[in-house]
């Protein structure tokens, strides 16, 4: 066989204006000249741009999915009035999403490991968009609840893939940066819910009312779907059989744990649910240890670093969620702010979070963040007890800025420290476990700190006729619980 010298040409590959080298080889085969053109090799800079574009797409979907867990909260009164819904039905609008999302996360992560993270992510985004549209056009409360459950399940399919995509697509310092951005998006989404929800209600585009909170997902999700479909690379974990028994037991345990506090069923129901969840989790652990392809590889939970990291996640996010709840009650019911103004008061906290989140990539930043967080939380009781009602907003802002700065320094690198050393084959399961811990912490924080707030207030939050002094004492006393969780977060980080 005669091989002629290869010629090198410059080409515009797939109209992306990427300069590539194309090698053309000519070979004699059976007396005929045949041209063989090898696949163009993209320039390293082009690979990097594609990788970061893919990250932007999956983070956009992450923000959309996490935002939808809280953005509906400020729309509940409008939903109740428009659909003539009972209080239990509007509670189920939020609870349906939260519970479906929580119980499906680990299974969703395993689906990505088995069938491909890119493929499952795109399916999850598409299902989320369809469920969002169903929520927006729901003619009744039961239809809206069913659509919200479907939306939560779609989020459980979509979101666990993000961490796996990051783990597969980035290494070294680039992975630390990508995980920092991911942690920042999680925190910003939890803060932005009230701001976005209040702004949409105040703007009321096309007289859509609460339905705009769901329709806003359509352009965001469509953009994420198109960009991710063109840029995210496929990856898989171990192609093991899906553990349906383990998935069912884990879902039952999470329902027992989360259903009573999410539906506000009272202290006895919460205690009974906690006992049932512990019993089911004991059975789940026993079953999983005997499985050749478990839903959650027990080797993950055998690592002290991961267990301590999950405990840190539980303490950090439970304190944050509880503080956001009591602050919203204090601003709206205590100080008389409307939902939009209340959301805007959260804005400095969110801006401080965004400003510091990208700086937190080392353990020192985590410790600095917990220090700022505790100082900010300690300042809240002093303000609400000592400052007159009309002047409190201005005095609260410095404390809220410290809280946001501290949360940003912690949230961004915390994800990376928990996942450090996880086998890529277990990335989907680890991501599902981490997100489940985050969601469990949010629900537990709202239940425990919210219940304590109502106990100190000695009335149902938001009830008419409750004096401002009662809200001031309840806010001051309950903030101490969030402060204790911030201190626990710092102790767990110090022991790493």
Automatic annotation (TrEMBL):
Top-rank lineage group of the source organism: Bacteria
Chain ranges passing through the membrane: 54-78, 90-108, 120-139, 145-166, 178-203, 209-232, 244-263, 269-285, 306-328, 340-359, 371-389, 395-420, 432-456, 468-493
Domain annotation Major facilitator superfamily (MFS) profile: ranges: 54-496
Primary residence: membrane
Listed PROSITE patterns: MFS
Gene Ontology terms: cellular component: plasma membrane
Locations listed in the record: Cell membrane
Keyword Cell membrane: no
Biological processes annotated in GO: response to antibiotic
A Pfam family recorded for this sequence: MFS_1
Membrane topology note: Multi-pass membrane protein
UniProt GO MF annotations: transmembrane transporter activity
CDD domains given in the database record: MFS_MMR_MDR_like
Sorted UniProt keywords: Antibiotic resistance, Membrane, Transmembrane, Transmembrane helix
Protein name: MFS transporter
Protein source organism: Streptomyces palmae
